[in-house]
Amino acid sequence: MPSYTAPVADMMFLLRDVLDAPGALSLLPAHAETDLAMIESILDEAGKFCAEKLHPLNRSGDEEGSRLANGVVHTPKGFAEAYAAFRDGGWTGLSASPEFGGQGLPRAVQILVDEMLSGANLSFGLFPGLTRGACEAIEAHADEHLKSTYLPRMISGEWTGAMALTEGNAGSDLGLLKATAAPRGDGSYSVTGSKIFISSGEHDMAENIIHLVLARLPDAPPGTKGISLFLCPKFLVNGDGSPGARNTLSVGALEHKMGIHAQPTCVMNYDGCQGWLVGQPHRGLAAMFTMMNAERLFVGVQGLGVADASYQTAAAYAKERLQGRASGASGTAPIIAHPDVRRMLLTMLSTIEAGRALVLFTALEMDKETTHPDATTRAESAGLVALLTPVIKAALTDFGFEAAVLGQQVLGGHGYIREWGQEQHVRDARITQIYEGTNGIQAQDLVVRKLDLDGGAPLRRFLGLIRETLATTADRSELTTERDALSEALGHLDDVTTRLGGALSEVDERNAAAVDYLRLFSLVAYGWLWLRIADAVLRVGDVTTTGRRKLATARFFATRMLPQSQSLARQIAAGAAPLMAPEASWF
Amino acid sequence: MPSYTAPVADMMFLLRDVLDAPGALSLLPAHAETDLAMIESILDEAGKFCAEKLHPLNRSGDEEGSRLANGVVHTPKGFAEAYAAFRDGGWTGLSASPEFGGQGLPRAVQILVDEMLSGANLSFGLFPGLTRGACEAIEAHADEHLKSTYLPRMISGEWTGAMALTEGNAGSDLGLLKATAAPRGDGSYSVTGSKIFISSGEHDMAENIIHLVLARLPDAPPGTKGISLFLCPKFLVNGDGSPGARNTLSVGALEHKMGIHAQPTCVMNYDGCQGWLVGQPHRGLAAMFTMMNAERLFVGVQGLGVADASYQTAAAYAKERLQGRASGASGTAPIIAHPDVRRMLLTMLSTIEAGRALVLFTALEMDKETTHPDATTRAESAGLVALLTPVIKAALTDFGFEAAVLGQQVLGGHGYIREWGQEQHVRDARITQIYEGTNGIQAQDLVVRKLDLDGGAPLRRFLGLIRETLATTADRSELTTERDALSEALGHLDDVTTRLGGALSEVDERNAAAVDYLRLFSLVAYGWLWLRIADAVLRVGDVTTTGRRKLATARFFATRMLPQSQSLARQIAAGAAPLMAPEASWF
């Protein structure tokens, strides 16, 4: 049977030796007292919880699924108890604001725990993950009364959150949404409309569920500039803060999905339900986007977590499964002897570890963005975070899905049946490429908006960091292969970036390049982080199995993955014409 | 709701205008009377049957699944009736030998009908598909008594077939299998063992099921040279040919799979069941491999069929779904206006149509291989078929799965739920990359065995055909882009092929290159076929929507897909060292 082990040692190596988290955090007054030993003990405990309490519910949760009966959603056996233990263990408020009862830890800690949750049980992890997103939106935009009424109970995990954006005819294009909100005259609103794809919209794990609902006020202009955000609790809150009367919102159906079966993805009906405005009228989309960076990082990490879980099973299986002979040997060998099995495992490993490094790098920048004393530094970090957010969301989930497919392939027919859990990973990972903005939308965000942000300053800054690493590692002759491969890939990225600012600067041209550009960008970013990881292994003189594996994986990435950058650059240079030439009716 | 329309016009264009099937078939006495009008009417009828009878059962079959109760397998509602109609319509024996009641049609016709079956209902298509495979093995290797007893009833579809190869510890490496067969003294054998992953092993659609079981005789040498093939009917056959006493074979369980839920994939137990030797003792694997070419072509076509079904839904959805604005336009546009949606659809389309062309080209060669009057021609065709079989199995299923994933992505969240059928296509397509030899095994077959076949003659012959097309189309200035792209890709293929014969000729080196090499090979083959298709469009002067779509798709493939060949060549040239350097314990 598959097991899950949180990769705490790999995580700590990145924080300590690659990204110098202690150095970065020491400059932030809010986190100056967070030391690595404390982080490690948190990660150890979280890993234990995920392995012992959540992973055992992953397959049973998939098989049983959440069920709707008479308007009540029943989560699978064990989920409510596991959530209670999670809440009571204090895991819901790790990075939340101490002002409302959170622990105020760095975002990097939250992100690493999120990875574990996702690897152990993706469906479960969405409950606290969405609650956190809702809390961030409320904290940033709601008035003091709403904050003090809702945040402490949500951060403590007593109440959970849900985000109600999508409607049947308004998905990627939220400007089309039709839900309405009418003033009731008492400062609250009547919210009416039907929403689909609402994760954790209804369930039996918490005594209240706080919905953030996008809707239009009566005087709203059309399109995205006429959308407002409303807080609609499942139970209205009494004066003493306890849940009171049932609000008029209800679950209409559960979606029948490819995966994340344990997660109740709801069709929600808001029937004149009472809600309160969060933020300014008609500025709801902006309020939602405040927390979008964090949510998209979270989704990227979901892809990463599932990929690592799949890797763990595939590697264990490959070392045990006897089938075929190793070249030049007699007798049956474990399939890890076969070059193609290694290709699959190294592809997984090389994208998992670099993906984790990229998201941790960004998480540290997010803490700088919000808490660094120096305004210029905050702005620079904000720029990097904005640039890297779509890359992380799309790259970690695309590579994550590809890893899950490879992890299934390693097991052959045994990967196609339930027994080993590998097929569930594929089904679960697939949603991460779709929700919170499809990966195509992420790529569009990168090429149409983020490249030109602040006149291109964040992009220049990021590419400058890569050049800096190439320079500072120049005397490591052991890493010439890695450096040369990265330099070449960076050259391709430079080249197409220049084109997107010149001959390919029209919107259709940029959009035609988008997905390939994001893949190229992520390959370069991963190559950069592998160079940093390999440099760190050599610097600290890690000659253990772990250190040697990292050096070997860096070499694999440089020689067998980074060359893809060349073809991607060619495809981008071909421009939009091959895509736009056919008339719509020809398809 | 999704619908399925068999792409008969595209199929006919390939047969008539691209591959000159009439010319090829006219040289084969067995098929000289098959004309295109007849083929077209068969395809029309088959397409109608698939669209009207089988496609409507695809989703309900997935949701209901086959169920096992008290040793009896119940296929989903409607399957038995649909099978009866299929059988009564005479669809089971299209390409089977007239000697035993088959219609003796060219394999190309069978392959095209197989594509439709797979696109409409993959689970259903496996029933007749596996029966056909069993028939081919019986016809090629069994004695006259077995042939006359079983073939007519199997070809008529009254009885179905199953192949029992895999055991829990013997999958890719069949040499490890443990099932035994002991002589009973009456010319028959007692077969004992447990097999897994047995498609159509037990069901309620036919009055008898004929199992071909691999097992070891008492005096069998170890490994693959000690395996024999036995025919074990579910019901022993009476002297008058009717089914008699129940044989001692039974279904132990149904596998719980990611997809093809309607197909009963069985754990089968053979408890001293009576069987008859097919072919020579200890030569069972060779007998199985006789029909493996056809089976692998069939699996490739399954990937193709599912990809096309997914494309049809994605294209229809993209033309209807209003979301976002087209660049430079006002008002909401169908998402087909977006360049990235077009990229996804064109990626699907360009691999579907070229894949169909490759498998049809090969099917025509298979008919030449078996029925051409000239021995040299037969041998040449056999070489091409042997070379292309692993390419077709792996490339059509890898591209097929990728297409299904893209077809799901086009629908966003609506692709992740059941409603549109796109997520089922992903789950169903996934098995085709795994069964009948994983795609890694196919790639290994290509690089380790097929490249050197007959001193490399088939490979030279195939590459020669590509050069010939480059030469014969040299004066079509409209196709310069396509020709240049193909020439360059062919250069990369030549380069790495030379390396695999030289510096990279060790087995580990070849296996390290295998999957990338097969992908590169298939890109070149597809590029070749797109050049032929585009040339045919220009030659016949097809200025319809269809013709223009084909020209546009050829351009897309040349500019946005073929450049991948460059990176693949680089990755292959990196050799095995990056894969083999890590010790097994490091993973």
From TrEMBL, chains A, B:
InterPro entries: Acyl-CoA_dh-like_C_dom, Acyl-CoA_Oxase/DH_mid-dom, Acyl-CoA_Oxase/DH_mid-dom_sf, AcylCo_DH-like_C, AcylCo_DH/oxidase_C, AcylCoA_DH/ox_N, AcylCoA_DH/ox_N_sf, AcylCoA_DH/oxidase_NM_dom_sf. Residues 283-446 form the Acyl-CoA dehydrogenase/oxidase C-terminal domain. It comes from the Bacteria. Residues 162-272 form the Acyl-CoA oxidase/dehydrogenase middle domain. Residues 463-581 form the Acetyl-CoA dehydrogenase-like C-terminal domain. GO terms for molecular function: flavin adenine dinucleotide binding; oxidoreductase activity, acting on the CH-CH group of donors. Its cofactor is FAD. Keywords: FAD, Flavoprotein, Oxidoreductase. Residues 41-158 form the Acyl-CoA dehydrogenase/oxidase N-terminal domain. It holds the Pfam family Acyl-CoA_dh_C. Belongs to the acyl-CoA dehydrogenase family. PANTHER family: ACYL-COA DEHYDROGENASE, BROAD-SPECIFICITY LINEAR ACYL-COA DEHYDROGENASE FADE5. This is Acyl-CoA dehydrogenase.
